[in-house]
C-alpha cells in the first residue's frame, strides 16, 4: 500500500475545505495544542477556485462562524489545501477549549476533521443541519447563535 504524502503547514495558514458543490470554505490554523490536533477558525467565506486569492481579503472577523479543535489529518494529507498565511487577530482566550487550560484541559472537546467538513456543508445548505444524533449538534459549533443561516436544510420534521 502506497503511503500518502504528508504536507507541511504552519500556524497562521489559511486553508480551503472542499464542499459538496465543488467550491471551498475557508479556515485558519490558530495553533496546535496537541500532537494530532489543531485549533481552527472557520469563516462564512466561500471561493470557487484556489487560483490567485488575496489572503488579506479572507478570514475577516465579521465572517467568523466557528472556533473548534479538530484532528489534523485533512490538512496533513492535503485534503484541506493551504492557500496562504497570515497572523490571526482572534485572542487566544477565545480559542476552542481555552476555558479548560487551568484545569489541565479536562473537558476539552476535539472533533474529527470530517465533522468540520460536515458542519460546513450543512451551513451552506448542502447537507441537512439536523442530521446528527443530536439535531442541535451543529448549533453548538457556532461562535454565536446569530451566525446560524436562515436557509438551512432539515431532514427531520420540526
List the helices and strands and how they pair.
Layout: E1 13-18, E2 24-31, E3 37-47, E4 64-71, H1 73-76, E5 81-85, H2 113-123
Antiparallel strand pairs: 1-2, 1-5, 2-3, 3-4
What would your notes on this structure say?
The protein is globular. Strand 1 and strand 2 form a beta hairpin. The N and C termini lie far apart (47 Å). The protein has 2 helices and 5 strands, in the order ββββαβα. It has one domain. The protein is mainly beta. It has a 5-stranded antiparallel beta sheet with strand order 4-3-2-1-5.
SSE order, one letter for each helix or strand: EEEEHEH
Number of domains: 1
The radius of gyration computed from the alpha-carbon positions, rounded to a whole number of angstroms, is: 15 Å
State the separation between the terminal residues, measured CA to CA.
47 Å
Which structural class do the helices and strands define? mainly beta
Gist?
With 158 residues, the chain is mainly β. It has one domain. Helices cover 9% and strands 24% of the residues.
Keywords:
2 helices; 9% helix; mainly beta
